[in-house]
Design a protein that fits this description.
Layout lengths: L1 H19 L2 H12 L7 H10 L6 E11 L5 E11 L2 E9 L12 H29 L8 H33 L20 E5 L2 E5 L18 H17 L4 H9 L12 E8 L11 E7 L6 H24 L25 E4 L5 E2 L6 H13 L9 E6 L15 E3 L6 H11 L4 E4 L6 H6 L10 E4 L7 H13 L3 E5 L9 H9 L3 E5 L4 H19 L5
Parallel strand pairs: 6-9, 6-15, 10-11, 11-12, 12-13, 13-14, 14-15
Antiparallel strand pairs: 1-2, 2-3, 4-5, 6-7, 7-10, 8-9
Helix pairs in contact: 2-3, 4-6, 5-6, 6-7, 7-13, 8-9, 13-14
Length: 546
């Protein structure tokens, strides 16, 4: 008897609870809606009907771990777990690309120091994710990107201040331990301003006069150890938000950019495909031309563009192999002046390996050679360089000023950081002929967003890289500023790339005009081109491809 009473009481309490949650009415509506359809999976459709009434997923756990990037160096992976319908589920993960440059031909001491610093930085980032950030972001909705990034930004600012205090204490201790300065300081010897004169033979022209002292490349900006935890977590939150919203990441980014008002059409950025990596293996100032890239014309689809670039790449390989066997009239050094003799030179053989950028490595004897090589390769397969395919050069721009007269490509990347007067002269000489894109000056996205008064050099646009403490909100804000100033936005991959293809979705969602992913080799590079192809196909299928 008592058991029956208890049963009835529980049934009454359950009925009251379900009525308070409006379950009977919603169940009746769902059953009435599904009855005419007589679905094959009735309970599956009922589950779908009720899932929209469930609580929004919230972050319950972050997991950070050390993984390897495309060249075998340590980098950071962040996983996000959410509570979804009362279950803990792994939603997504992201691997952030490493920012530091690949050290080639470096001393063993420098390489060891770089490896130690990288390991320490990744270990610190893993610690930040698994401890502090895991606590700070718990119970937040991953769809609240602004709130997530605000917390991440505040945490990073706190860490920066802590590091400043540590450095200040170290400096004070060093000053106390330092010996007193000498009473007499000898005068410094004045340094000469460089060579008195130079004569440069460029593209058949003699350029004489005083050679300017070349400004050294600006040293790499110091990066706070562990900062990659901020960028990786922000991007992981965006991917989790897209997954939970059941839309691709590029659409999710486009919604964030346009305040949840999805544009009717989206564009696929033009790829800047690396074909030759030549600076490391060329003598002297010839190292200024670090990378030769191809840009397809806008009327081609991405699929057609890649096929055309692959055809050019095959022809380049043929020409390089032929050049190693003997003189080639198509690649002979075309000199009209006899100042350096009339003997013909041919291109040196290609080094039999692929660079970390996914392109061919070669050296050359003069600046014209790689340009003539590209021209000959295009001509041999019936293409006109400048009409059927465009050229881009990644150059060490702090050395470019002496060689301005030889260039006439579609775009030049990199920029002066210290000597803006030199950069202004290059812009004056070439600005009407090609795009001039700032890369190093614009890499520090969060610095550009924070310091609104720090102007970019005169340029057509900026190459942005998602690294370190960069947050998704920073990208959204900065691309808005660049578009407002009529600057071109280019999303670029860093040296230490990973197999994560999120960069492509970011570029499409942000409306970038170009994307620089490296060459058409190496898995971590090709996977991004494949993602770009998939997005183009999806947009075309949905009739939303501009």
């Amino acid at each position: 008897m008592e058991a029956e009473v208890a049963r009835r009481r529980r049934a009454r309490e359950a009925a009251e609870y379900y009525c308070s949650q409006d379950v009977p009415r919603r169940l009746e509506e769902a059953l009435n809606a599904l009855f005419p359809l007589r679905p094959a999976d009735l309970y599956g459709d009922l589950a779908n009907c009720f899932s929209k009434f469930s609580k929004a997923p919230v972050i319950c756990k972050l997991v950070g771990r050390k993984v390897l990037d495309g060249v075998g160096r340590p980098t950071l992976e962040v996983e996000i777990y959410c509570i979804i319908k009362n279950y803990e589920k792994r939603v997504c993960s992201t691997v952030i690309s490493s920012d530091s440059q690949i050290l080639e031909n470096a001393l063993s001491e420098a390489t060891e120091a770089d490896e130690k610093e990288r390991n320490d930085s990744v270990n610190t980032a893993v610690e930040w994710v698994n401890e502090s950030l895991n606590t700070l972001l718990r119970d937040l909705k991953p769809t609240e990107q602004c709130e997530v990034d605000k917390i991440l930004g505040e945490y990073f600012t706190k860490k920066v201040e802590e590091e400043k205090e540590i450095q200040k204490e170290k400096e004070e201790e060093e000053e106390e331990d330092a010996p007193p300065p000498p009473s007499c300081v000898p005068p410094t010897t004045a340094l000469s301003g460089g060579k008195k004169a130079s004569a440069l033979h460029l593209a058949g022209k003699m350029v004489s006069g005083a050679e300017r002292t070349i400004s050294p490349a600006e040293p790499m900006e110091s990066v706070l150890r562990g900062s990659s935890a901020i960028g990786a977590t922000s991007l992981a939150a965006a991917k989790a938000g897209a997954t939970i919203s059941h839309i691709p990441l590029y659409l999710y980014i486009a919604l964030l950019k346009h305040d949840q008002d999805l544009p009717k059409e989206l564009t696929v950025p033009l790829p800047m495909v690396s074909l030759l990596n030549c600076g490391k293996f060329s003598p002297g100032k010839l190292k200024l031309m670090k990378e030769i890239m191809l840009i397809p014309p806008v009327h081609l689809s991405l699929k057609e563009s890649i096929e055309r670039i692959l055809d050019i790449q095959k022809e380049v390989v043929k020409l390089l192999e032929a050049a190693g066997k003997g003189p080639s009239p198509q690649l002979a050094d075309k000199k009209k002046s006899g100042a350096r003799g009339t003997g013909k030179k041919v291109l040196p053989s290609a080094i039999k390996r692929i660079s970390h950028l996914g392109c061919l490595i070669m050296g050359f004897d003069n600046l014209e050679q790689p340009l003539l090589l590209m021209q000959a390769a295009c001509s041999n397969i019936g293409l006109e360089l400048g009409a059927d395919m465009y050229l881009a050069i990644n150059c060490a721009a702090h050395e470019l000023i002496d060689y301005v007269s030889i260039f006439n490509p579609s775009s030049i990347r990199d920029s002066f950081l210290q000597d803006r007067q030199q950069w202004d002269k290059v812009c004056y000489a070439l600005g009407s002929q090609c795009y001039l894109l700032a890369e190093d000056a614009a890499t520090r996205i969060s610095r550009l967003v924070t310091d609104r008064d720090m102007n970019l050099p005169k340029c057509s646009g900026a190459v942005l890289k998602y690294v370190n403490q960069t947050k998704v909100s920073d990208l959204l804000e900065l691309t808005g500023l660049l578009h407002g100033q009529r600057h071109i936005t280019i999303l670029g991959s860093p040296d230490g790339e990973s197999s994560d293809d999120s960069l492509v979705d970011l570029a499409v969602g942000l409306g970038a005009k170009f994307i620089k992913l490296g060459g058409l080799c190496r898995g971590e590079r090709v996977t991004k081109y494949n993602r770009l192809l998939a997005i183009e196909e999806e947009l075309a299928k949905n009739s939303t491809l501009r």
